[in-house]
Design a protein that fits this description.
5 strands; 14% strand; 160 residues; alpha+beta
């Protein structure tokens, strides 16, 4: 019998080694990718809250120029010239949020969440910030415009 001098293809050992290398890379990359998704969502929240803050300041200046008294809107989203794409003006209940909604609760039926700006995150948790219509101030925690609280939609909203 004649031995083959020209081998075509890969050996099983080579294929197994490539699969192991791809598995190790995936094991390292997937958790990092998930962290990047969370970090980008937080960055978008901070950008939107910063935009709301700037819009409230502009709104108050315009009111001062027109009537001599600084005032702020009841709903902070009114101060924006362009609303976030996921803002739902008709929804006021935290537990009914869907699809990464942004809402403002106003003076609802649950005093704990009155005048709350809320964002439903991809992780099904809700980031919340407080808004004071009398002063136009946004209450945040930690990093600039970090949420006051992050709660699970079904367990911690108290039905609101």
């Amino acid at each position: 019998m004649q031995h083959m001098k020209n081998k075509n293809g890969f050996t099983i050992i080579e294929l197994i080694m490539v699969m192991i290398i791809i598995g190790v890379l995936a094991a390292v990359a997937i958790p990092r990718f998930q962290d990047i998704v969370v970090e980008s969502e937080v960055a978008v929240e901070q950008r939107i809250l910063n935009t709301i803050s700037d819009g409230l300041e502009t709104y108050a200046r315009e009111k001062y120029i027109s009537n001599g008294v600084r005032s702020w809107p009841e709903n902070p989203f009114v101060a924006l010239s362009k609303l976030p794409p996921d803002y739902d003006a008709d929804l006021f209940v935290l537990s009914q949020m869907k699809d990464r909604d942004w809402i403002f609760t106003g003076d609802g039926n649950n005093p704990q969440y009155n005048n709350t700006i809320a964002h439903l995150r991809k992780s099904d948790s809700i980031a919340v910030w407080k808004y004071d219509p009398a002063t136009g101030e946004l209450d945040y925690d930690g990093t600039p415009f970090g949420p006051i609280n992050v709660l699970h939609r079904l367990n911690a909203t108290g039905g609101n």
